[in-house]
Write a structure and sequence with these properties.
Layout lengths: L1 H10 L7 E4 L5 E4 L8 E5 L5 H16 L4 E6 L18 H9 L5 E5 L13 E5 L2 H8 L6 E4 L5 H11 L3 E8 L5 E5 L8 E9 L3 H12 L4 E9 L5 H4 L7 E5 L7 E3 L2 H12 L4
Helix pairs in contact: 1-8, 4-5
């Protein structure tokens, strides 16, 4: 993972890639090619897709057996974080289960823009969720943005942080149901006519919501719409959907590696690690 290399550089420490393959039956095999790890160890690994979660559990055991003094888990994108509630009888508390197993062999956990920060309370060890909004704002400061918008009121706080960091106005989109089949989407209060707008969100999965939001902003007169998110999940060829859509450009952070993960969170994660190892949290 490129983020792991960046973190090693920022922390001035060794980068040791895990040697991971799969057996013919699909089971994961991983190995760390060192004699011992008599130091503080940082494992950088997503828990999405499922195979990465299994690899994380195996890596935790491997570094523990190699003598790690402490184990810090950096989970840029926490898989199962959105499965944090039980809606129907018979459903598991998936996010809680993931935390419980990861908690067995670690000393601290760092995540980035977790779906709900309260999920981390399922860890018994020290934990911290770092926020990507400031680095997103820094990236776009010189990109000619006039206004920051969130796709719904639930993400309005993120738009506010980005807007405040950039010294720009911010707003959110609101949906009004006009009939059983028709929904109107428009900015809650802002006038976007003639403006270059930045839509910010925590993640993009299929891209449908963002494309609809962009179309609404263009209809309201926005001359350019750029989209930025922390986690570019982009399932079912979502990136290809943006080609030919009203979206002028889409970028994301490097919590997941893809063609548009150009905004690095290495600096804020490195700062969190330094503070943790210094006993500040």
């Amino acid at each position: 993972m490129d983020l792991a290399k960046e973190l090693a550089s920022a922390l001035n420490c060794n980068f040791i890639p895990a040697l991971t393959t799969a057996f013919p039956d699909g089971e994961c095999y991983t190995r760390i090619d060192v004699e011992k790890l008599d130091d503080d160890v940082i494992i950088v690994q997503n828990t999405f897709p499922d195979s990465k979660f299994i690899e994380m559990l195996l890596l935790q055991d491997a570094v523990k057996k190699l003598g790690a003094k402490s184990i810090t888990l950096v989970i840029p994108y926490f898989g199962y974080a959105r499965q944090d509630r039980v809606f129907k009888p018979g459903e598991p508390e998936s996010a809680k289960i993931m935390c419980r197993h990861l908690d067995l062999d670690c000393d601290r956990v760092i995540t980035v823009d977790l779906h709900k920060e309260a999920t981390l309370d399922n860890f018994t060890h020290a934990h911290k969720d770092v926020k990507a909004a400031p680095v997103i704002a820094e990236y776009f400061k010189t990109k000619g943005i006039d206004m920051v918008i969130s796709p719904d009121i639930g993400a309005a706080g993120r738009a506010k942080i980005v807007g405040d960091c950039m010294g720009l106005p911010y707003d959110h989109l609101e949906k009004t149901r006009l009939s059983g089949t028709e929904v109107r989407i428009k900015p809650a209060t802002a006038d976007v006519n003639g403006k270059s707008v930045l839509i910010v969100d925590d993640m993009i999965s299929t891209g449908g919501t963002i494309i609809a939001a962009t179309a609404a902003l263009k209809e309201a007169g926005a001359v350019k719409v750029t989209v930025a998110c922390t986690h570019g999940v982009f399932v079912n060829n979502a990136l290809e959907r943006f080609n030919g859509s009203p979206v002028d450009s889409v970028l994301c952070c490097n919590t997941l590696s893809n063609a548009v993960s150009l905004i690095s969170v290495a600096g804020i994660v490195a700062d969190a690690i330094k503070d943790a190892l210094a006993g500040k949290w």
